[in-house]
């Protein structure tokens, strides 16, 4: 009986190299797919400027939180309502409320909505809201001074739309 002992040949090297790079490419494609389909971080236009403003914004947010003013956003169908009250539960003194609706990724559906004052501490508007996740930034002002600034992430499926 004749046995052949060729050892490690060029064909073996080609197959090993092809298998290695095939695995690397498959992993990269899989990771790229998951990153592009599931990432929900916020993007700022200039990260340097955003980092410089962070401490100032953090101090302002702490002061607003200490004031005890709270807002409540409710969305039913195309009716959007924002109620704002102080520590005691009384309507807060606010002139105008602006809601900035942003998608977590991309900005092609983003819009700004100025609410109309319906009563003391109650602001309303009508607007159709597409399905999915939204980040809603609410800015409440009195005589041009920001009284409350908050952001919430909402999912229209959870709202029963």
UniProtKB/TrEMBL annotation:
The chain crosses the membrane at residues 12-35. Keywords: Membrane, Plasmid, Transmembrane, Transmembrane helix. It comes from the Bacteria. InterPro entries: FixH, FixH_proteobacterial. Pfam families: FixH. This is Cation transport nitrogen fixation protein. It comes from Rhizobium johnstonii (strain DSM 114642 / LMG 32736 / 3841).
């Amino acid at each position: 009986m004749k046995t052949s002992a060729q050892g490690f040949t060029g064909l073996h090297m080609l197959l090993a190299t092809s298998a290695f790079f095939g695995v690397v490419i498959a992993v990269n494609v899989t990771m790229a797919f998951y990153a592009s389909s599931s990432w929900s971080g916020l993007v700022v236009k200039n990260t340097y400027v955003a980092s410089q403003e962070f401490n100032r914004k953090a101090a302002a947010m702490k002061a607003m939180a200490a004031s005890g003013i709270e807002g409540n956003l409710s969305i039913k169908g195309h009716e959007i309502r924002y109620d704002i009250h102080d520590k005691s539960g009384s309507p807060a003194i606010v002139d105008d409320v602006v809601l900035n609706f942003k998608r977590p990724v991309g900005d092609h559906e983003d819009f700004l909505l100025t609410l109309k004052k319906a009563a003391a501490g109650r602001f309303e508007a009508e607007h159709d809201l597409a399905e999915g996740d939204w980040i809603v930034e609410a800015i409440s002002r009195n005589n041009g001074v920001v009284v409350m600034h908050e952001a919430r992430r909402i999912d229209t499926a959870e709202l029963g739309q």
